[in-house]
Amino acid sequence: MLTLSQFTPHGDGKNLDTKIIQQALDEANRQQTSLTIEPGDYLTGALFVPSNSHLQFEAGARLIGSTNLADYPEIDTRVAGVEMRWPAAVLNIIDGEDVVIEGPGVIDGNGPVWWERYWGTDQKGGQRKIYDAKNLRWIVDYEVKRPREVLFYRCKNCAISDLTLMRSGFWNCQLTYCQQMEVSHLTVKENNGPSTDGIDIDSSSYVRVHNCELSCGDDCIVVKSGRDGDGLRVNQPATHIEIDHCVIHSGYGVTLGSEVSAGISDVHIHDMLFENTDCGFRMKSSADRGGVIKNVVAEHLEMHNVQFPFSWLMNWHTQYNHKTMAITPNMKSMWAVVASQIPEKLQKTVVKDIVVRDVTATVSNDYTKETRAFDLKAFPEKPMQNITFEDCHIKANEFGHLVGVEGLLFNHVYVSTQRENDQQLEKFDTR
């Protein structure tokens, strides 16, 4: 076993330790031994973990992400469903096999610096305001480059556990084109910035995420499979995903989408606790997108003070999803790849064969807040199909919306609603 202290890092959180940590990682790999990072504050840019590595963080060990974008070299990667050159993450595992990363240390991405560049100090300014004024909402997330914290890219048989990820500049933990992966006992917190997803499972298969606790400014645990034309070009689905025994706090819960060009299938979400989240089990896409979401089971879910327990919107956030420019010869290459569309006949995501069972969902006693038990909206020409809810008890302001849903079964579904100060309990059974 090697320790980082053997390589004499600064460990003061002020002087860069990138080269020293990278040297330690490479030497541990050469010796085929593990590397332990002892307590200390290690300021770093992008680090690259080789295959067959074991990286152990001790309690009190903290990697602090540099706020200088030059410390994150641009690499071939995928960002929000589109392949492009983009800054590397703080911790990168690329084409890796048999890598184990475990805590109980911390990765702190220095997020507020990156968030301010995106949306200013008041969340209404920054580059976002400039791009919005030009009707370029669809490209700004890619143009304003911000480091992720952990990236697994084209990896196999890897595991990450027991770390705390906080204040990420962009996504916290991303798994793209991976197989046979395990993510467990992660804590994701203090992520109040734009696009600060917790755990992103992107075009990957045989992935299990369990016993994690997350507070995010966006989707907490999310499954994706590529955006629009570029996602269809790659055409690698997300399949055989298990998400279980996690606690979800602030953010948008467990989400499928919105980038789903290659499809999502065989997902099992179970034994989950949601507290004070905006959404519980969420699915989202847009009219311009395609793909199929199918064979999903969500069961044994407990939700407290969740605004939208089931938000399944197939034409979500049109300002972000709809491109406002056609591809031209003089367009930046990155803009062109983001703007790439799928054939019109393949557009509009299909959702089918979904089972939800054993759910208890409540909201706060503040009935002035908009809450809906169900917000299921698809397209009449491509409706959701074969949707089953069983043994659900939900308390909300209103029942909600069912649009473009075909083959819907409610079996022992109870919804308690508040209308004009009179509480009503309704049972829905469509057997």
Automatic annotation (TrEMBL):
Give the UniProt keywords, A-Z: Glycosidase, Hydrolase
Lineage: superkingdom: Bacteria
Q: Does the keyword Hydrolase apply?
A: yes
The protein's matches in Pfam families, at most eight in alphabetical order, are given as: Glyco_hydro_28 (PF00295)
Q: Which InterPro entries match?
A: GH28_Enzymes, Glyco_hydro_28, PbH1, Pectin_lyas_fold, Pectin_lyase_fold/virulence
* Membership in a protein family: Belongs to the glycosyl hydrolase 28 family.
Record protein name field? Polygalacturonase
Organism of provenance: Lactiplantibacillus paraplantarum
